[in-house]
């Protein structure tokens, strides 16, 4: 019998309406009881999933949140990923923990650069995608143009599952193509207080569009969707409540239950008896009063029971998980048991790190969770030199979370911070100040990029390291890293030392 678990992420370009859609899905799923949080003033305007201070100040999501809810016997684990272009690494790790994704596209802007980047990550892991074209109650691009762009840019078959009757000023509702029922706006124009009814005679131009679409685009095929070859497309407006209910129904009916996970020595199947899971995220200080550290673990197989002992790949000593947590954004409750597909939080004090596999069975390691070479390097300068110890603790915590990477140069005492995107530097300074009471500035680094180095011939590696000590550092695991002044220098040095491998990613 298929599992009633659906673990999915929402991905989009910034401002496409992802956080609003997240909130409406939670409302439709019965997880929150106030539909107007995105319209409310002041503190209520923050979506429930955006809890970090910098998120509230800027109105963007910069960290992945997990929300669990149940509707009609199906349990949904929703992972709200950062949409900001600077958070590709955290977003990538989140996408390793899901079985499907909802891609949100703005009807006026179509597919944007970040959408394409996130889609490529999904494609790497064959994550099936449902597309939601948002904001059709505003002026947007022609429907055929949007559908053709999705098909061309993403190289996917598209299957429209609903159709907007008009757009912007002429918007009259959304037609469900499977049931031939239409959801119409009614009452207060700022929200959907409408009605769903059997579609009457449609305007001739709309009827013709739908006929052309059904003849010209692929019909829905559940296997093609689950294989990542076809995307069903829904139209709607998250703000006006057109579409969230249909999305939840589609996820329940079509989205895959927990899938096998790539692992060594063999893939982990969800129906295996032994409990296995992996940590895809670590978050410190979700509750600033208690300085907590939570490891987010995706359960891959077995039935997890509270108090059971699991062995992490990191250090090989079994740990007892006494207080596992189920999440609803910042709200949490103790989980007595969990099943494949579920995300549980494990409180710990630095024992667990991103990429760790926890299992009842020794020797299992989930693969496909790499570190990425940072694209920006900076030195950290303390405003108060007496706070060196606090800074070291903060940088250790934040590097365990994956917010930053820390490199310790072989020569010199200035630690170097590496990030994938510029916004992570703002997050670093904000969190140092807010959570650790450490004031710091960032200074230019003499280096521009970093590469992990290795060689099958130890003598070749030693020769390279002896001759290039001034450009060498170690990461927090003690792995040797070459710090280069430019991408050109990386290529030049790699040509000179052909026996040494310069890697832009490192498997955790």
Automatic annotation (TrEMBL):
InterPro entries assigned: EF-G-like_DII, EFG_III/V, G_TR_CS, P-loop_NTPase, PrfC, RF3_C, RF3_dom_3_sf, Small_GTP-bd
Keyword tags: Cytoplasm, GTP-binding, Nucleotide-binding, Protein biosynthesis
Domain of life: Bacteria
UniProt xrefs under PROSITE patterns: G_TR_1 (PS00301), G_TR_2 (PS51722)
Any single Pfam family the record assigns to this protein: RF3_C
Transmembrane intervals: none
Segments forming domain Tr-type G: 3-259
Tagged with keyword Protein biosynthesis: yes
Gene Ontology annotations of biological process type: regulation of translational termination
GO cellular component, one term: cytosol
Binding-site residues, GTP: 12-19, 80-84, 134-137
Location (main, coarse): cytoplasm
Subcellular location: Cytoplasm
GO MF terms held by the record: GTP binding; GTPase activity; guanosine tetraphosphate binding; translation release factor activity, codon nonspecific; translation release factor activity, codon specific
NCBIfam families in alphabetical order: prfC, PRK00741.1, small_GTP
Family recorded in the similarity comment: Belongs to the TRAFAC class translation factor GTPase superfamily. Classic translation factor GTPase family. PrfC subfamily.
PANTHER family, sorted: PEPTIDE CHAIN RELEASE FACTOR RF3 (PTHR43556)
Protein name (Swiss-Prot/TrEMBL): Peptide chain release factor 3
Species of provenance: Sphingomonas jeddahensis
């Amino acid at each position: 019998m298929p599992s009633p678990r659906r673990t999915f992420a929402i991905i989009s370009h910034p401002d496409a309406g992802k956080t609003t859609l997240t909130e409406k899905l939670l409302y439709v799923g019965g997880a929150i009881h106030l539909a107007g949080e995105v319209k409310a003033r002041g503190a209520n305007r923050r979506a429930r999933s955006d809890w970090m201070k910098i998120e509230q100040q800027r109105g963007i999501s910069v960290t992945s949140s997990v929300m669990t809810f149940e509707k009609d016997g199906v349990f949904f684990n929703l992972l709200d990923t950062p949409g900001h272009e600077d958070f590709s690494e955290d977003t990538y790790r989140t996408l390793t923990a899901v079985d499907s994704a909802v891609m949100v596209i703005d009807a006026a802007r179509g597919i944007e650069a970040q959408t394409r980047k996130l889609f490529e990550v999904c494609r790497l892991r064959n994550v099936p995608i449902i597309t939601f074209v948002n904001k059709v109650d505003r002026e947007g691009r022609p429907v055929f143009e949007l559908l053709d762009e999705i098909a061309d840019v993403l190289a996917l078959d598209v299957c429209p599952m609903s159709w907007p009757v008009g757009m912007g000023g002429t918007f009259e509702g959304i037609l469900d193509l499977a049931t031939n029922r239409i959801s119409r706006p009614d009452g207060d124009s700022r929200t959907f207080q409408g009605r769903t009814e059997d579609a009457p005679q449609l305007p001739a131009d709309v009827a013709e569009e739908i006929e052309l679409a059904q003849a010209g685009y692929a019909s829905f095929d559940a296997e093609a969707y689950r294989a990542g070859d076809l995307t069903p497309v829904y139209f709607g407006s998250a703000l006006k409540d057109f579409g969230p209910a249909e999305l939840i129904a589609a996820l329940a009916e079509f989205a895959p239950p927990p899938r096998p996970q790539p692992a060594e020595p063999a893939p982990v199947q969800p129906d295996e008896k032994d409990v296995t899971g992996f940590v895809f995220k670590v978050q410190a200080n979700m509750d600033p009063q208690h300085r907590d550290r939570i490891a987010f673990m995706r359960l891959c197989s077995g039935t997890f029971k509270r108090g059971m002992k699991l062995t992490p790949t990191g250090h090989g000593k079994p740990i007892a998980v006494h207080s596992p947590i189920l999440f609803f954004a910042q709200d949490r409750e103790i989980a007595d048991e969990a099943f494949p597909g579920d995300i549980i939080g494990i409180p710990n004090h630095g024992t667990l790190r991103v990429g760790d596999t926890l299992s009842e069975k020794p020797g299992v390691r989930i693969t496909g969770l790499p570190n990425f070479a940072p694209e920006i390097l900076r030195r950290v300068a303390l405003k108060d030199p007496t706070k060196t110890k606090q800074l070291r603790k903060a940088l250790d915590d934040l590097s365990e979370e994956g917010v930053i990477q820390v490199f310790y140069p072989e020569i010199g005492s200035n630690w170097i911070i590496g990030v994938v995107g510029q916004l992570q530097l703002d997050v670093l300074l904000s969190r140092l100040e807010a959570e650790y009471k450490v004031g710091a500035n960032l200074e230019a680094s003499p280096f521009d990029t970093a590469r992990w180095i290795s060689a099958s011939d130890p003598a070749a590696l030693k020769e390279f390291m002896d001759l290039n000590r001034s450009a060498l550092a170690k990461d927090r695991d003690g792995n040797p890293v070459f710090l280069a002044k430019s991408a050109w220098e990386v290529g030049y040095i790699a040509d000179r030392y052909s026996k040494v491998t310069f890697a832009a990613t490192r498997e955790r």
